[in-house]
């Protein structure tokens, strides 16, 4: 029989009673898809019954980059093929005390208006940008659009300078 020398008994670990609540941070992508001057909105099927409107998009899978996630999410939710053109802006949203999302809104274009919805949404609409305010947009999307409107002009100039001179 083997006996360990100088063996100290292990301390018992205690765990809190009830389910463990951990804070979670997620990464998401959205696509502002243009077709002939209109933007695609999807009406979300949600548990609260509020059915807000949003851009196509969703969460990243482990190891997936933003670009690939955006194309995949658009395809899954609408069956559209799009071309990503640029980044419109960044957003973040606290769902509750334990869930925080941050993400990117891409600008995309398509020539196909034939949307086939996934079971995540109940309806879709192609709307003029000036009509967006008439739709009950998802809170995180409305906040992101407000930030895009107030984007920094000098930042845009420096971005363009970088793009033109980085070769």
TrEMBL record:
Pfam families reported for this sequence: NUDIX
Keywords: Hydrolase
Species, as recorded: Veillonella seminalis ACS-216-V-Col6b
Cofactors: Mg(2+)
Keyword Iron attributed: no
SUPFAM superfamilies in the record: Nudix (SSF55811)
Stretches for region Disordered: 1-22
UniProt feature, compositional bias: Basic residues: 1-13
GO molecular function annotations of the record: hydrolase activity
Keyword Repressor belongs to the record: no
Sequence ranges assigned to domain Nudix hydrolase in this UniProt record: 24-150
Protein name from the UniProt record: Nudix hydrolase domain-containing protein
InterPro entries recorded: Nudix_hydrolase, NUDIX_hydrolase-like_dom_sf, NUDIX_hydrolase_dom
């Amino acid at each position: 029989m083997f006996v360990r020398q100088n063996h100290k008994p292990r301390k018992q670990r205690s765990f809190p009673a009830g389910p463990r609540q951990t804070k979670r941070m997620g990464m998401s992508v959205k696509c502002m898809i243009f077709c002939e001057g209109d933007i695609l909105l999807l009406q979300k099927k949600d548990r609260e019954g509020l059915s807000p409107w949003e851009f196509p998009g969703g969460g990243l899978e482990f190891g997936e980059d933003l670009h690939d996630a955006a194309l995949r999410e658009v395809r899954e939710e609408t069956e559209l093929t799009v071309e990503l053109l640029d980044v419109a802006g960044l957003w973040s949203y606290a769902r509750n005390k334990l869930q925080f999302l941050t993400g990117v809104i891409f600008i995309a274009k398509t020539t196909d208006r034939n949307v086939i919805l996934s079971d995540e949404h109940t309806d879709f609409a192609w709307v003029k940008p000036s009509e967006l305010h008439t739709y009950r947009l998802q809170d995180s999307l409305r906040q992101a659009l407000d930030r895009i409107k107030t984007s920094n002009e000098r930042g845009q100039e420096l971005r363009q300078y970088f793009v033109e001179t980085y070769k």
